[in-house]
Amino acid sequence: MKCPRIDVDLRKVRHNTWAIVERLKVRGIGVTAVTKAVCGHPSIARAMLDGGAAGLAEPRMSNVIRLRQAGMTCPVTLIRTPMLSQVDDVVYFCEASYNTELTVIAALAASALKQNKVHGVILMVEMGDGREGIIPHSLGEIAQQVVAMPGVALQGIGANFACLSNIAPTTQQMRDLSALATDVEGQCGPFLQTVSGGNSANLPWALEERATGRINDLRIGEAILLGVDPITGDHIGGMFRDAFTLVAEVIETNAKSMQPLLCHSDHSVAKIHLVPETSKATRIILGIGHQDTDTAGLSMSQGNTFIGATSDHLIIGTNDARLCVGSEMRFQMNYSALMRAMAAPDTRANLSGDHPAPTKRGAQGPSSYLALV
């Protein structure tokens, strides 16, 4: 089979989705599955829906269109503020979008009227992450203006956490978001259908034994795809961490291992020299590099050591004698590595488990519980 490639086990994606959906369901929270890391791959999106996700979320219109062209009819929400140049497509292809700018919302409304549609608007609130969002004290006024616009409907509010700041949300922040939802309803009248509390980083909060308030939706991508808490990297119990595996081919071996050594004799430029290493590890080169993935986000089995990478080469030290020219090496990926690998033009996804297995839910994963471990 050709390399580089990503081996995708759809059965594990389905199970991971189901594990989160079932646990959040008892907390009154639904799951919107985020497909951006897999570039809106239709088969992976279907596995998420089969696992119980209520709908799909995407920040890029190219991925949304890919989903629609594949025949996906489920609700799809654009979770990045729409570009003015794309408002017609946003209204045509998406039931709703997350917004922060009145100028953009007005353009969506005008486009929706032309298309004889009503487009759902979810207002993003800045709750401390520092990325996008409306300042809380301005939310009510902006919400009132949205309610007054024909062509759009105020569907809800949402917030984002741990993307720019990498800081998990606090209980108080989630309480504040719930209070804002109630305040907006008091000022504007319509009941808010969606109060989206954030992303995979919110799972520890959502799974604790406390009231979740008005929060009824989380946008989950990383936890479903990789089975980990994005803040700590900890495994989420009962979920698979190996639904995605990057496979690269060995293109060169060298029995004498080499490692880089910085020479500072020239103080203007640090020159790199290769010197022999005393260990018995073999130096191998794989046909993959920075252009294909985030090499810093790759992990490998014991006995292998990362030496370095360039745009097209990955250099590994290994004690595995089976790794010869033409053989394959497998890597697990973090979220950054997965996103870049899925978007790389020379990397293809190899799918397995394309149909739900007729086994009981409890038999599909390592365990029936969901907890951070």
Concise structural overview:
This protein has two domains: 10-230, Alpha-Beta Barrel (TIM Barrel); 244-352, Beta Barrel (Elongation Factor Tu (Ef-tu), domain 3), CATH 2.40.30. With 373 residues, it is of the alpha/beta class. Helices cover 28% and strands 27% of the residues.
Helix fraction by DSSP (H/I, runs of at least 4): 25-40%
CATH A-level architecture of the largest domain: Alpha-Beta Barrel
Shape label? elongated
- Determine the strand fraction and express it as a percent band: 25-35%
Helical stretch tally: 10
Count up the domains: 2
Mean pLDDT: 90
Q: How are helices and strands ordered from N to C?
A: EHEHEHEHEHEHEHEHEHEEEEEEEEEHEE
Main structural class: alpha/beta
Q: In CATH, what is the class of the largest domain?
A: Alpha Beta
CATH superfamily of the largest domain: Alanine racemase
Rounded Rg: 23 Å
Specify the biggest β-sheet. Answer: 8 strands, mixed
Which fold name fills CATH's third level, the topology of the largest domain? TIM Barrel
Distance between the amino and carboxyl termini: 35 Å
Low-confidence stretches: 261-276, 357-369
